[in-house]
Design goal:
heterodimer, A: 200 residues, alpha/beta, Pyruvate-ferredoxin Oxidoreductase, domain 3, 6-stranded mixed beta sheet, 8 helices, 43% helix, 18% strand, B: 623 residues, Rossmann fold, 4 domains, 5-stranded mixed beta sheet, 37% helix, binds iron/sulfur cluster
Chain lengths: 200, 623
């Protein structure tokens, strides 16, 4: 590959953000590419913002995506997708964003107001070249709940063009990396179906 | 064992651990702490099959001493810890450095956490290498992280000094490709032969003099090291000198700034400086930009060294002249900015319109502070503290400590101090003596189980001995939860070959005036116990049996046997109350705007029932 490809996964602790990163980086390995993946730990399980930076190149890169240089933003939560896009997205960025909100302790206590989802998507659209907002709730109710959000979203991004890892690579990587691959793959396929509907 | 040596993705931590195993390490000690935990974890997962020793020591000082001991017996030894851990160990480090390390070699890995992602402070631990006159390596990538450990053992064995390797969060916690070598099963020389004269007296000053001579020789060895890479054509307009992960940022920045004539010097051996390499770099550049994590460590050393060189015409740029920040993490953007400023170029990443778009997007953002897990019993204890504080008219001061329960600073400021391991009870032992000065507040401290064993015992003895009026609450969830469930001596369930040390018996041996065991899962009794105890004079210790829900789930708990927790909409007072969602704040409780009633997220709820007690209107039910 000539140019680096940068994937940023933004979400909230406990959403399976790191697992997404693992799956994608192993998928890149299947293509003999050189992934470097930066994970934020510590906060990851305790409800804070979690960012995973995945940089795919043909040589070893630093673990952080430079500002504005994400090619793909995988937003597991709208507010976090917005936070990440302000720093790391640009006109070349395609954002796939789950619209399922995770409240913050302060939005629950009325100390702060969680902005309306359509306002968030609008703001992300003003920054990114393309935004696919996807509501996972219906599909996940069928498959096994919000725990499977990561596999669902991996399915959704697998239909995008220009990503250096293919759908088959990601499926294979899920098979190798995750416990309970069948359920995850079935959820992955739901993500594929829903994303295809949206992009049409 | 690991026969498969195909290249794979490894974190910097795993790579360094792997490097130690490949280099034949025989004795590994550590105390868990982000970002360094993964090093010892990797070694432990393989220790038994390779036949080596690896332990979570009770604290970093003991870890360092134990590993030094093994090294003196001829066994290659490794000790890993986080930045603040090296502070704990430094008491011994700064005197052991003057006695030679053992024949097997002794390597210390310290994980710094620039920006303090998971640390109560920001610290650059490299100054310990300078203070202790010890060699220091700063690998820049994953393969190098692995390879630098073998090199560190070589240097240690050759010069008989401990060698320090410094990693930072970004290297430790990111993953890249690493080529592996096989791990041989090592035979250690038998019988073990102890080194002699393991003390510095009566002439420590002479030992220090000798170490200085050694460090000069090591500087010459570093000049020959292939770890340091100078890439420069003729005279560069700008040359970066970078260490650690900043090497990667420097490379990318030089690609990005669009200036043709640039160069890079990547330094891995940063103390002592490889003087010839540095001198060569200085001579080939008009401008030099230093890039390193946290303090201007390399920068200061090179600025000072340059005064020894004749006719230096290049300009130095870095943290000392504010072109690069000396706080927080460095990244490619900061490297680009620094480079552009050094060359007098105009820096702007975005045009005005794009700045404006981001500015208005930013206005939508709200913070997302960290919080306790659903059903975490620490939340219960702090909820109880809040209630007791209210009853005492705010006159309760709680000193905090290091662990998951540190999050108490964000939970209604339930704890008022947060510094180093064991500092809570230490501070409280001082405050608890101020009642004769007219202090009218009750004094308490919290500590976790692992933290208690690590650093609280001397302070607790002090509190008893000095007759302080203090209540220590030990939140015992039987694991080192913050860093990922490492075993510690206080747990009943011990791995083979290790024995339990009872926290309760230690406390009782100190003989507090009042001692009781509480159940932090039971919110009502917790409030009552804290309320009655903190008002008692003398030394009080409450041992709260606590539950880490993550650990519980890791062990396979699914909660399906307990009844589901739900809201009785008719009984609930809605917006006018909102105590459960807004004040208690369990993350499994959300708020449904349309109905103005809370919702319980069943996939997150652990059915602990705490919120049932919290609700003043009996509107949360279980069953
Ligand atoms: S605490 Fe009870 S009454 Fe108050 S909002 Fe929550 S459920 Fe309703
Ligand atoms: S029972 Fe209540 S306090 Fe316990 S986890 Fe569920 S919602 Fe949270």
């Amino acid at each position: 590959m000539k140019e680096d490809y940068n994937i940023l996964i933004a979400g909230v602790g406990g959403q399976g953000n790191l697992v997404c990163g693992r799956v994608l980086s192993e998928a890149a390995r299947l293509k003999d590419l050189h992934p470097v993946i930066g994970e934020t730990f510590g906060a990851s399980r305790r409800g804070g913002t979690v960012l995973t930076h995945l940089r795919i190149s043909n040589h070893e890169r630093g673990p952080l995506i430079p500002k504005g240089r994400a090619n793909l933003l995988l937003g597991m939560e709208p507010l976090e997708a917005l936070r990440a896009s302000i720093e790391y997205a640009g006109k070349q960025t395609v954002a796939v964003v789950s619209t399922a909100r995770v409240e913050t302790p302060e939005s629950l206590s009325d100390a702060a107001e969680y902005p309306p989802t359509d306002k968030i998507i609008e703001a992300i659209s003003s920054i990114c070249g393309e935004v696919i907002a996807i509501d996972p709730v219906e599909a996940l109710e069928k498959s096994g709940g919000l725990r499977l959000l990561n596999s669902y979203l991996l399915g959704a991004i697998s239909v995008l063009k220009g990503v250096p890892i293919s759908k088959d690579d990601i499926r294979e990587s899920i098979r190798r990396t995750l416990q309970n691959p069948d359920l995850n793959l079935a959820t992955f396929d739901l993500g594929v179906t829903d994303a295809l509907k949206l992009s049409r | 064992m690991d026969d498969d040596t195909s290249p794979r993705l490894m974190s910097g931590n795993e790579a360094m651990a792997r490097g130690a195993l490949e280099a034949g390490v025989g004795f590994c000690t550590s105390y868990p702490g982000t970002p360094s935990t993964g090093i010892a974890e990797y070694i432990m997962s393989r220790a038994e099959s390779i036949g080596i020793h690896a332990e979570w020591s009770v604290n970093e000082k003991v870890a360092l001493e134990a590993a030094a001991g093994a090294s003196w017996a001829g066994i290659p030894s490794l000790c890993s810890m986080k930045s603040l851990g090296l502070n704990v160990a430094s008491d011994s480090l700064l005197s052991m450095n003057l006695s030679e390390s053992g024949d097997g070699g002794f390597v210390i890995i310290v994980g710094d956490d620039p920006r303090g992602h998971s640390t109560s402070t920001e610290q650059d631990s490299r100054f310990y290498a300078k203070a202790a006159l010890l060699p220091l390596l700063e690998p820049s990538g994953y393969q190098e992280a692995k390879d630098s450990v073998a090199y560190a053992f070589d240097i240690s064995r050759k010069y008989k000094v401990p060698v320090i390797i410094r990693s930072t969060t970004r290297l430790s916690h990111s993953r890249g490709l690493v080529n592996l070598c096989p791990i041989d099963i090592h035979d250690f020389p038998r019988p073990l032969k102890m080194k002699e004269n393991l003390f510095n007296v009566p002439d420590p000053h002479l030992a220090r003099r000798d170490l200085r001579i050694k460090i000069r020789k090591i500087s010459e060895a570093f000049d020959k090291s292939t770890f340091n890479r100078l890439r420069v054509k003729k005279e560069a307009e700008l040359l970066t000198i970078a260490s650690g992960i900043c090497q990667k940022y420097a490379e990318e920045a030089m690609e990005e700034i669009g200036v043709e004539n640039t160069g890079t010097l990547g330094l891995v051996t940063t103390h002592p400086l490889p003087k010839k390499v540095v001198a060569k770099a200085i001579k080939r550049a008009q401008n030099i930009l230093f890039l390193e994590e946290t303090d201007p460590f390399v920068e200061d050393a090179i600025r000072s060294f340059s005064t020894e060189l004749i006719s230096v015409s290049c300009k130095f740029h870095g943290k000392q002249n504010d072109l690069v920040p000396a706080h927080g993490e460095i990244n490619t953007d900061l490297a680009i900015q620094g480079a552009q400023k050094a060359l007098g170029l105009k820096f702007s990443r975005l045009d005005e319109k794009e700045e404006k778009i981001r500015e208005s997007a930013r206005k939508l953002l709200i913070r997302r502070p960290l919080t306790f897990c659903a059903g975490c019993t620490h939340r219960n204890v702090y909820w109880a503290v809040r209630k007791v504080k209210q009853r005492l008219g705010g006159k309760l001061f709680v000193a905090g400590d290091i662990g998951c329960y540190s999050l108490g600073v964000f939970y209604d400021e339930a704890i008022s101090t947060l510094f180093s391991m064991g500092s809570g009870i230490g501070i409280a032992s001082g405050l608890g003596q101020l009642h004769s000065f007219g202090l009218d507040s009750r004094i308490a401290a919290v500590a976790g189980d692992s933290t208690f064993l690590h650093a609280c015992i001397p302070a607790l003895i002090n509190a008893k001995h000095k007759n302080a009026n203090v209540t220590l609450m030990i939140l015992d969830n039987s694991t080192t939860a913050m860093t990922g469930f490492q075993k510690h001596p206080g747990e009943e369930d011990q791995p083979e070959g290790q024995r339990m040390v009872s926290i309760e018996k230690i406390v009782q041996a100190i003989d507090p005036d009042f001692y009781a065991v509480g159940d932090a899962a039971d919110l009502s009794s917790t409030i009552a116990l804290i309320h009655s105890t903190v008002r008692k004079d003398g030394l009080n210790v409450l041992l709260f049996k606590s539950i880490c829900r993550l650990e519980e789930q890791r062990m396979g708990e699914s909660y399906t046997e307990q009844g589901r927790v739900y809201i009785d909409s008719d009984a609930c007072h809605g917006e006018s109350c909102k105590i459960c969602a807004a004040q208690f704040g369990c993350v499994a409780i959300g708020w449904h705007d349309e109905t103005a009633r809370p919702i319980i997220y069943d996939h997150v709820c652990v059915r602990c029932g705490a919120c049932v007690i919290v609700c003043p209107h009996d509107a949360i039910k279980q069953g």
